[in-house]
Amino acid sequence: DAMVRNTRAVVALKLPRRHAVTIRMDGSEGEQAAYQDLAAATRRLVGGGASRLALHHLLGAAGSSPAAAAVAVTRFADRHADAPEWRARAERWASLGDGGKEVALLDLLRRTPDEKKLVFVHYRETLNHLAGLLARHGIAFARFEGGLSGPDKDAAIAEFRDSVPVLLCTESGGEGRNIQICNTLSNFDVPWNPMAIEQRIGRIDRIGQQREVFVFNLVTRGTLEEQLLGLLDEKISMFELVV
Prior knowledge:
There is one protein chain. It contains 10 helices and 6 strands. The protein has helices at about 1-15, 30-45, 50-65, 65-80, 85-95, 100-110, 125-135, 150-160, 195-200, 225-235, and strands at about 20-25, 115-120, 140-145, 165-170, 185, 215-220. Helix 8 (about 150-160) links the parallel strand 3 (about 140-145) and strand 4.
């Protein structure tokens, strides 16, 4: 009898199956050229002894959105006033407008307009740009980020639950919150830390989730982010794990 009860308990605790899909897209022609220029510039700097972490941040921002890249490159240019070409790079990124990932996200959100969807973004500049993009295209959303007060966070979750189909969420914003009212998550930016990915998925893939869970990873071809995603997905099957 004890064995039967234990077996039933294990069955009851079994989580729904995950489905992970990686959506790869090409950046616009201008975006691809700007990324290749930035990648070449960072390689030269690494060869000259510059910090790899700082340069990886530049490429990570460029893999997120032109808006994030413009801000990251501008900050780099501010610290290197003796290299005016970086100011020109920042202006180049700022002129690009929407990136390939933004266009792909719009298409993904429109496929099932009535389903609740959680979109995780790492860079604040990308979050702001996505908010403007969704507003322009008439897609209702709520924002959930680390800078909000506790009551504002509760209000954002309530708005998502009751009246809007999309929740734009930053890494710190989603910490400690279980959002089982939806079963679809999009990683607009893929974090470098595998446990951060699991924590994101854990917002919706928890005990009590009755539906299958769908995870969409958006990545631009030819970027550092695509290489990282290949490592996480192919080498350790990150998106199929339940930690």
